[in-house]
Amino acid sequence: MPIILRQPPSSRKNEKAKTEMKRPKDRNQKIPDPEVSEKPVRRRFSAKYKRQILNETDAATKSGQIGAILRREGLYSSNLLAWRRQRDKAINQGLAVKKRGRKPVKDPKDEQIKRLERENARLKQRFEEAELIIEIQKKTSQLLGIKLTDVSEHEKKIREEENG
Q1: 130 lies in a domain?
Q2: Continuous segment of H or E residues that includes residue 13
Q3: pTM for the whole thing?
Q4: Domain interval for residue 57
């Protein structure tokens, strides 16, 4: 004989209470979407907050205090590393000697000269590669016993054929 379990009446009341809690009391109120958003939103930290956390972690002396601060704030140790680097960089920049006066104006001719120099270097490289290929073709034709004609000789033959 199968055993049939029935729910006690008190659990039925709890289910009713749960469903009532899910419904918004005000009809204009929307139920929050349980789905995860498509694009996560990055947290942004203000400079004041970063400074506060760095001062707090720098003041930590006991073992585990830094970890407790990170857990409390929901941060990672990589955040501390990045923030310390930012702080050190800002301090070093503040101590660096700054050049006084106007910044030099870039001359458009200088940019054109640089562009032409790059183009010239690129073309020289292509020319050297082409000469190397021609040398290899000459040596290959000598090995195979094929006589190569000079370009000017080839042009003369074409002209003679056209005229003649």
Answers
A1: yes
A2: helix 9-22
A3: 0.40
A4: 47-94
Specify the amino acid at residue 113.
I
Percentages helix, strand, coil for the chain (3-state, rounded to 5) are: 65, 0, 35
Per-residue pLDDT tens for 30-49?
776 677 777 778 889 998 99
Cα 56 from Cα 163, distance rounded (Å): 95
In a domain, 16, yes or no: no
Rounded Cα–Cα distance for residues 85 and 54 (Å): 11
Q: Is residue 7 part of a domain?
A: no
25 within domain boundaries: no
Q: How far apart are CA 15 and CA 22, in angstroms?
A: 11
CA distances from 96 to 58, 65, 104, 154 (A): 25, 34, 19, 69
pLDDT in tens, 129-158: 999 998 998 899 888 888 776 667 777 778
User: Contact 110/88 with Cβ under 8 angstroms?
Assistant: no
Kindly report the number of other CB atoms within 10 A of residue 121's CB atom: 10
Number of domains within the chain: 2
Angle ∠(34,35,37) on CA atoms, nearest 5: 125
> 53 and 90: one domain?
yes
pLDDT score of 10: 54
Give pLDDT tens digits for 63-102: 999 999 999 999 999 999 999 999 998 888 877 777 888 8
